[in-house]
Design brief:
Number of strands of chain A: 17
Distance between the termini of chain B: 33 Å
Number of helices of chain B: 7
Largest interface: A-B, 58 and 48 residues
Number of domains of chain A: 5
CATH topology of the largest domain in chain B: Glutaredoxin
Distance between the termini of chain A: 57 Å
Number of strands of chain B: 4
Structural class of chain A: alpha/beta
Strand content of chain A: 5-15%
Shape of chain B: elongated
Radius of gyration of chain A: 26 Å
Number of helices of chain A: 24
CATH topology of the largest domain in chain A: Rossmann fold
Radius of gyration of chain B: 17 Å
Strand order of the largest sheet of chain A: 10-9-13-11-12
Helix content of chain A: 25-40%
Number of domains of chain B: 2
CATH architecture of the largest domain in chain B: 3-Layer(aba) Sandwich
CATH class of the largest domain in chain B: Alpha Beta
CATH superfamily of the largest domain in chain A: NADH-ubiquinone oxidoreductase 51kDa subunit
Helix content of chain B: 40-55%
Oligomer: heterodimer
Strand content of chain B: 5-15%
CATH class of the largest domain in chain A: Alpha Beta
């Protein structure tokens, strides 16, 4: 009998650490049947964390969900006595189990299955076979790149550029007198709402290392670097251990697998700057400078880190590589659409019933992801929009739900594939507020190098600030559009060029909401503070005084057991009363 | 991003200075390590006052302008001291959609400080952060390294109470 606890960042935040400690304590006291206790990374079902997987002696999986410390005693008894019927109450429901069974996992193939801190476990699941095959069967770098070319693998960081093309360019680039080439992994997952890269590093770090080794061999690099964002401390810890273990086993260092190929790998921790996800800004940051993008060309393949030929790919891209080498490019290309091959991981979150990591073949519709796998909107509200691609992407309405996941199809809608953030919104989310949220983000994260991005985003933010405060003017939408196109044309890097996308899609699909804010000074979603008022429904209020006690400005008055009232001149619209009311008597208008 | 610069006098100890010197000695062969040194310096001092930035600039042989440039560019570097318990509310998209803004407002009100500030007793500081990648548990906040997820405004009091010592 084996007990495996899901210990990605999400699981730990939900309390997996306490569950682990308790089970360990119980097993340390008495463990007559030698029950094993282990860990795994992110299983991808965030909505069910903490998760404990019980493998019985036949190797069959019984998945326990939302496990709390108080359940540990029962789990311990069931595991030590073999009476698994004790666990029925904790078992995952068949509907929830569909969240995983409807997926096709390649980049996440071992995530949530293997122990991320054990190289043996990775090897037992077929790990390091790809690099061994390449180095021991005489595959040349050109052979490897050709295989990747057949697979059609494209950059999973968002831009969707052909991986084989990039590798070939770096391989063919002249490294000059210095002679060095570098292979870099972009793990600066800055798009708020995307966390697949974190999950891969925390859950299957050796898959990243192996993918990078294949890349380094292909382009002729002997030094590889992973740029990880500082907000991911657990990912850094697990990757560090993986690097030590891989070096010890001879998968990193000199003469890997007895060949002439040598490669080292090191981690560089970022320090919190969204723009460092842009490859040339990332290179500047690697060199210890402010992360400000460089003018392209020259591209990193010609002059990257220390102006030497460098190749940069995202974590998810590398995580696919070993699978492609082991299973062939054709098998990968068999999935997906004409333009987009293989699978893509999405981080499904927001007002969704079942949130977590979803890996599906390209060509799947947004509707299937959100309603088929994600179970639709939580709490029975109406679907309003889905945000794709974070600050560089856009919000799509219900009418676009049948769009298939494909680089070109998604770009045509005005959103982008992006790195895979998929935040779902219901009727209570204000789309103008959402656009303002993203502009606030890009205005703050703009590095300041070019005028259009630095000042343009600031001006757009000012206009949106006005609109949500009820001070919008006629012509604001046109002004926003003008600024959007000017920034798109004038900005140097991807951050600036895509910064207007959230606003443009809001104008395109939710123009009526913008107009309601500007012309009628009304927020249809009831979210913009300056445009709403709180009142108490006199017929519903029972006079429990809960709201009055929570009001920070004593704006609510009334006798106990008789309906209360809000003084509009005092109300600061904090919403505490609405949260406090158990009877739904506080109304927003 | 604009940062608040502390007006509190610098109170570094000789032990801290010795630690920083050791870090600099380990890294000064390569100027690109300046960020690494700054990250470690922040671990040692809790923030990066001008005095510490000057020590790093001198030790690494890079102009002070470069060090200050890096310190002000990246969100991670703090120019004013943090509280004993640093509360960081995630304002990533998923958390925002699920109401982390309300949680942040409530904390500001309860602690009587704004984002980037520290309570006068030095106990709590408050910041807003970008996505920490725990979107499945949105809205989330962290207190030092401890993550709290699936929050509702009612949870705030209980969390603050945990750090009442």
């Amino acid at each position: 009998m084996k007990l495996i606890i899901g210990e990605g960042s999400c699981g730990l935040a939900a309390g997996a650490g306490a569950v682990h400690a308790k089970l360990e304590e119980l097993l340390a006291q008495d463990n007559p049947t030698a029950v094993e206790l282990g860990i795994t990374g992110c299983i991808g079902m965030c909505f069910l964390e903490p998760i404990v997987d019980v493998y019985d002696d036949e190797g069959e999986l019984h998945r326990l969900v939302r496990v709390q410390e108080k359940d540990c005693k029962t789990i311990y008894e069931a595991a030590t006595t073999g009476n698994l019927s004790l666990l029925d109450k904790l078992l995952i429901t068949p509907e929830d189990a569909e969240f995983l069974s409807k997926q096709t996992r390649i980049a996440l193939r071992d995530c949530g299955i293997i122990d991320p801190e054990s190289i043996d476990d990775y090897i037992a699941h077929g790990g390091y076979q790809a690099i061994t095959k390449i180095l021991t069967t005489g595959m040349t770098p050109d052979d490897v790149i050709a295989e990747i070319d057949v697979s059609g693998l494209a950059g999973r960081g968002g831009a969707g550029f052909s991986t084989a093309f990039k590798w070939r360019a770096a391989k063919n680039a002249d490294a000059g007198e210095d002679g060095r080439k570098f292979l870099i992994c972009n793990a600066d997952e800055g798009d708020p709402g995307a966390f697949m890269d974190r999950a891969v590093i925390e859950g299957d770090p050796h898959a990243l290392i192996e993918g990078m080794l294949v890349g380094a061999y292909s382009i002729g690099a002997s030094e590889a670097i992973v740029y990880v964002r500082a907000e991911y401390p657990l990912a850094i810890v697990r990757l560090k251990k993986a690097i030590v273990d891989a070096t010890e086993r001879g998968y990193l260092g000199n003469n890997i697998c007895g060949s002439d190929f040598s490669c080292t790998l090191r981690i560089k921790a970022g320090a919190g700057a969204f723009v460092c996800g842009e490859e040339t800004a990332l290179i500047e940051s690697l060199e210890g400078k402010r992360g400000m993008p460089r003018l392209k060309p020259p591209f990193p393949a010609q002059a990257g880190y220390w102006h030497q030929p460098s190749n940069i790919n995202n974590v998810e891209t590398y995580a696919n590589v070993a699978w492609i080498i082991n299973n062939g490019g054709k098998a990968f290309a068999a999935m997906g659409t004409e333009n987009s091959k293989g699978t893509k991981v999405f981080a499904l979150s927001g007002k969704i019933a079942r949130g977590g990591l979803v890996e599906i073949p390209m060509g799947t519709t947004l509707r299937e992801v959100i309603f088929g796998i994600g179970g639709g909107i939580r709490g029975g509200k109406e679907f309003k929009a889905v945000q794709l691609g974070g600050p560089s992407g856009g919000c799509l309405p219900a009418s676009k739900l049948d769009t298939v996941i494909d680089y070109r199809e998604l770009s045509a809608t005005g959103a982008i594939m992006g790195s895979g953030g998929m935040v779902v919104m219901d009727e209570s989310t204000c789309m103008v507020g959402m656009a303002r949220f993203f502009l606030d983000f890009t205005a703050k994260e703009s590095c300041g190098k070019c005028v259009h991005c630095r000042i343009g985003t600031k001006r757009m933010l000012e206009i949106l600030d006005r609109i949500v405060a009820g001070k919008g003017e006629e012509g604001d939408i046109e002004k926003l559009e003008d600024l959007c196109y000017a920034i798109k044309d004038g900005a140097l890097c991807g951050l600036g060029q895509t910064a207007p996308n959230p606003v443009l899609t809001t104008i395109r699909y939710f123009r009526n909401e913008l107009e309601a804010h500007i012309a009628e000074k009304r927020c249809p979603a009831g979210e913009c503070r300056e445009l709403i008022s709180y009142s108490i429904d006199q017929d519903v209020c029972v006079g429990c005084t809960a709201c009055a006690r929570q009001c920070p400005v004593q704006a609510i008055t009334g006798e106990r057991k008789s309906p209360h009232k809000i003084d509009q001149t005092l109300c600061i619209k904090c919403g505490n009363c609405k949260t406090a009311c158990r009877f739904g008597a506080v109304v927003v208008a | 991003m604009q940062k608040k610069i502390s007006s509190m006098p610098f109170k570094g100890t000789p032990e801290q200075e010795a630690q920083l010197k050791a870090v600099i000695a380990e890294n000064c062969h390569d100027k690109s390590n300046v960020m690494v040194v700054m990250q470690k310096a922040q671990d040692i001092y809790g923030y990066l006052p001008i005095e510490v930035q000057e020590m790093i600039a001198d030790g690494m042989g890079v102009p002070m302008e470069k060090v200050y440039g890096v310190a002000t560019f990246y969100a991670q570097f703090a120019l004013s001291p943090k509280g004993k318990y640093n509360i960081s509310v995630c304002l990533g998209t998923a958390c925002y959609v699920k109401g982390s803004g309300d949680i942040l407002e409530l904390l500001k009100e309860k602690l009587g400080i704004d984002v980037g500030e520290c309570t006068p007793d030095g106990k709590f500081s408050l910041e807003a952060c970008r996505c920490i990648g725990a979107c499945g548990l949105a809205p989330v906040l962290t207190v030092n390294d401890e993550v709290y997820g699936r929050l509702v405004p009612d949870d705030v009091d209980a969390i603050l109470a945990k750090y009442a010592d």
